[in-house]
Design brief:
CATH architecture: 6 Propeller
Strand order of the largest sheet: 1-2-3-4
Helix content: under 10%
Structural class: mainly beta
CATH class: Mainly Beta
Strand content: 35-45%
Number of domains: 1
Number of strands: 27
Number of helices: 3
Largest sheet: 4 strands, antiparallel
Length: about 475
């Protein structure tokens, strides 16, 4: 046990050192870690599905596009030997009838759906191929296809289609007006058509039925680069713009049309997922990794303008966005992207009225890399001392809350087995009990926590099976 703990600590220290060396290399080459060769620090990166030809064209065309090599990562967890891996990154959500839907790639790299009957969520049905999707779909790590359901029979599936240049892509979508029975042709969500980063999208409907799409975007980095003459800035022509930006579009008609692209905030991390969660008033809140001055990769929080108001505001959104609320203070000085986004859940039943949110994230705090849990105020500012999960190999955690119950799940690799672990609280996060839900010797995806009403389910896809278990009593 002591040797195992020492080995885990040594591995964690080694990950920080390797990340620092890769960052030094990034400064020389002018590329961040997320834009360099694979670091070998994560065991879920792999080749993306085979590429098509050309680029996605305007909405509804479904023209295929070229593929994309895997990005390097810096995460927690032990490392595995690198080899060809199945593309397991998937999306999962319950519909209004209580059926669990999964969207992901099959073994032939085709986008497929699987649906579980409402009375038996673990029993996913046969694969249904989405024939209209005739293009490459990014399905690795933090970049995955996603599905969301609206209040009036709408269903949307979103993904990133890679473009010819490395680490670029377009956010693509198909939509249904009959609860997912039939989907239309793919279209590009955003108006910008540059061959740049539009990736790591997150999608959600708010209580009014408005569909929000947020993503990581590098058009502002590109504009600054083009505007400056070669060698005019520090780093041999590289800009002083930190990270990327968070952009959003809103649809009030179930995805038929969208507002103009709106920049929410500058200086997001380049390759970490954006967490979305419902607000008590029916809107949405977002949590993402942000690059704070001078170069600290912590987390930022904002409440999104709800529904039609957001669409109307976007029509004339030209002024620079204000600063977001800082939600974590790990003060991780890292000139690279860890490929490790946060999780967010509303704290609706907390006995302390000042608590608004439960959050989970990965970061390096005073030299210790760990996944941590913390409580946030209603405005997203931290109000508790973050607590590290009881597993030094924990990575890619998800969080959900229902009443006084808070559930955190993560995966953990010990050199042979990957385990799906859970931390369950019945007192709004004041105390937790750890459980191991499943384990696998095969490749695995990151775990998720889809909810059906107040019921919380653990969802975990491996190369051998899809694991679904109700975590709440």
């Amino acid at each position: 046990m002591v040797k195992s703990l020492q080995r885990s600590r040594a591995q964690a220290a080694g990950r920080v050192v390797r990340a620092a060396l890769l960052c030094a290399l990034a400064l020389v080459t002018g590329q961040g870690l997320a834009h360099g060769p694979s670091s070998g620090l994560s065991h879920d990166a792999g080749a993306v599905s085979p590429a098509g030809a050309g680029q996605p064209s305007p909405a509804g065309s479904g023209t295929p596009s070229a593929g994309e090599p895997p990005a390097g990562t810096a995460t927690s967890g032990a490392t595995r030997p690198r080899r060809a891996r199945p593309q397991l990154a998937s999306g999962a959500a319950f519909d209004a009838q209580g059926r669990l839907w999964m969207v992901g790639l099959d073994h032939q790299m085709r986008l497929v759906l699987r649906v579980a009957p409402a009375d038996q969520p673990p029993g996913l049905g046969p694969e249904r191929r989405l024939e209209q999707v005739r293009e490459s779909v990014a399905a690795e790590g933090e970049s995955r296809p996603k599905i969301a359901f609206g209040p009036r029979g709408q269903a949307v599936i979103a993904w990133t289609t890679p473009l010819p240049r490395p680490y670029t892509g377009n956010i693509r979508m198909i939509r249904s007006e009959d609860g997912g029975a039939r989907f239309g042709e793919p279209f590009t969500v955003h108006q910008d058509r540059q061959v740049i980063t539009h990736r790591f999208e997150s999608i959600a409907f708010d209580a009014s039925g408005a569909l929000h799409v947020l993503w990581i975007d590098k058009r502002d980095v590109e504009a600054m680069r083009v505007a400056r003459p070669q060698g005019a800035s520090k780093g041999g022509g590289h800009t002083d713009y930190r990270g990327a930006a968070v952009y959003r579009v809103v649809s009030v008609d179930g995805g038929r049309s969208f507002s103009p692209d709106t920049r929410l905030f500058d200086h997001s991390c380049e390759c970490c997922r954006i967490a979305l969660a419902p607000t008590p008033e029916g809107g949405l809140a977002a949590l993402w990794r942000h690059v704070f001055d001078p170069n600290e990769r912590d987390h930022a929080f904002t409440r999104l303008t709800p529904g039609a108001m957001a669409a109307q505001t976007a029509q004339g959104a030209t002024r620079p966005p204000s600063a977001p609320v800082r939600a974590s203070f790990d003060r991780w000085a890292l000139d690279a992207c860890p490929h490790h986004g946060p999780g967010l859940a509303p704290a609706g039943a907390d006995p302390d009225p000042s608590v608004g949110w439960h959050a989970v994230w990965f970061g390096d705090r005073a030299g210790r890399a760990a996944v941590r849990y913390g409580r946030l105020a209603h405005d997203g500012s931290p109000i508790s001392v973050p607590v590290a999960l009881p597993d030094e190999a924990a990575e890619h955690a998800a969080i959900a809350a229902s009443g006084a119950m808070v559930v955190i799940v993560w995966r953990s690799f010990d050199g042979r087995l990957t385990r799906l672990n859970a931390w369950v609280s019945h007192d709004s996060g004041r105390s937790f009990v750890q459980r191991t839900l499943a384990q696998s010797e095969a490749e695995t995806d990151h775990p998720m926590l889809p909810m059906r009403g107040g019921e919380i389910y653990a969802f975990w896809r491996t190369a051998e099976a899809v694991y679904v278990e109700r975590v709440t009593p």
